[in-house]
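[retry 2/3] PAR1 protein: previous attempt timed out, resubmitting with same input.
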Amino acid sequence: MASNLSFKILAVLALGLALCVQATLGGVTCEDLDQDVCAFAVSSTGKRCVLEKHVKRTGQEAYTCRTSEIEAEKIRNWIETDECIKACGLDRKSFGISSDSLLECHFTKKLCSPQCYDSCPNVVDLYFNLAAGEGVFLPKLCEAQGGNVRREMAEIRSSGLVAPGPIQPGRLIVSPALSPAEGPIN
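[retry 2/3] PAR1 protein: success.
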């Protein structure tokens, strides 16, 4: 009984200490992060961190971590693990991200793998929102990994909208109001 009480007291003290340390340190601040952990991190305010490359006057490259305007859903104070970076096929040295990576079958396969999709909520949240911006539902895209991947990729490329084809191939239809004059203008 005494050891159970001691354990509870230690647990409460440890939790209190963790909260005090976090309050003292202020959580994750993108500008304070090293370039090796910046990409795919989320600040204490819920804003995503981005790695930026600058060229100094000497021609030497310098990297800085900045806070972006993109908010993460329900994620704060997060530095992505190396295991997730590897499992999801990401690169810490990436400068910004785009939905174009979803067009790459190799990347999508890694993103949709159980090692990434089931274990890396920050990465999945990020790419879920990118896919949604293109009108694609990420779980459906991942489901297609076992089926018609080309069709799903075509939907991403076209953003789901396809222009209608001609009514009769090889025949131009002109409105009478817009028809050209019947002869030369004198």
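[retry 2/3] PAR1 protein: The chain has two domains: 27-79, 81-160.
[retry 2/3] clearing retry counter.
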